[in-house]
Amino acid sequence: MRALNSVRSSEEALPPSLLMSVFVELHIGIDDVDSPRGGCTTHFTYVFLKRLLSEVPDAMLIDYPNLVRLNPAIPFKTRGNGGVSVRVTVPGELVKNVVDILHESLDDYISELGGGGDAGALVVEAPAHEGLRRLYWKALTDYVHRDYLMTSLEKVGDMIHYVRGGRGLVGAAAAIGWYIPSDCTYELILYRNGKRCIDRDAFMRTARALTNVLFSNWVDGRLLIMPHGPDPVLAGVRGEDPSALLTFTDPKIYCGSVSGWIIYRTNQGTNQHHIIRTDVLRPYQTGCFDGVVVSRPEIRKGGDVVIRVAWGGLTTYAAFFRETGLGRVAGSLLIGDAVRVCGTAKYWEGIGAVIHAETLTVWPRPAVTVRNPRCPRCGARMKSAGRGKGWKCPKCGYRSANLHKEIALRKREPMLAGLHVPRDEAIKHLIKPRQRYGREKVCVPSPPMTRWSDFTP
Ligand code: ATP
Asked: For the ranges 83-87, 407-411, 419-423, which has the lowest average pLDDT?
């Protein structure tokens, strides 16, 4: 394996030409550099970084490149709605070189693909990225309108060195804004020359020893790491720390030809889009709400389950899809159960916003049932005698205006209380899988231990 760049040691002397240089911190965002024929934003970033670090050797990464997943409900995503950001320091006089390399690399990549009209990119100088944090949260949890984006960028003002304004600018700017101390994970992405091929046994041998720091890479021995589209990705291996992921750069694992690899720091598997909402959830928004079940679960053909939940004076529908495994739990809910539902809101014809549930928490509270009173004379269940007229017994005819509804505790499935997450095979990029609970950490940006290598198996 041939290292392209090694990390500069702090003791290494700077060349005399740089002694007078003032270094500036640049945050570079990129998104939507793909076309139906292939390409991928992470692969473009790999190509761009390779060129940047060889042509501007004084550029230093101050963080792993970031792969930032955004709102999964956005309809125009190709796959996982991911933007990328790259954070470097460069001598001030070389900022223009960085911008030129980015611009040319985008043009080259896009013309080779024959698409890329939506590509967006942004280069800002620190601390302008601070102003983009709000945009990150918005793009993660809501729809970002062009006006909102423009207002956010106007605030950043002349700290902007470069803009490419396709639709991808939303993801590019939001990816820069993910510069917050928060939980994070890492993904090693390997790129291919030709067909995808992995030696499953070799992969599993390496993976078994590292189970505690990996997640969402396989289910029951079936690998989940290979995509199926025309993009240049051979595989993506997800884990908690970059050093463990480096193990998977071993060429023996891959029977196909690998053209290179890169490790990203990401917000994948963190549930960061599950913000607590206290207001109405509109289509395209993500988040969680606490409420009380007010209808019996409707179990639909195929096993999907829909419930109605009241919260803060509103009622909303939540759908639990069979493949997530949450339908079984939702189908056992009782009226009166207190729940937290997290997910993304989509528009259903004739209903409005419906939460497509990604997690379900059932609070450990016994469900109650409310029933009509029993007849004090014959014991039958009474009926309403009409609005404001009390109760009437359908069996013996007894009437009373002084009886009250009965509230009773219902027997419950003891296993229902607690947090329910989707089955491993139904986990999507941002959702925290079972294995990650208890592994959360606070990550701060840190320079990569290694950059990446030209990889020759
Ligand atoms: P790739 O990995 O190839 O980039 P992808 O699944 O990440 O594919 P994109 O092709 O990037 O999807 O398409 C997503 C588009 O949606 C981008 O143009 C991005 O700027 C835009 N976008 C992302 N989040 C939002 C949002 N919350 N509101 C509006 N637009 C958004």
From this structure: 407-411
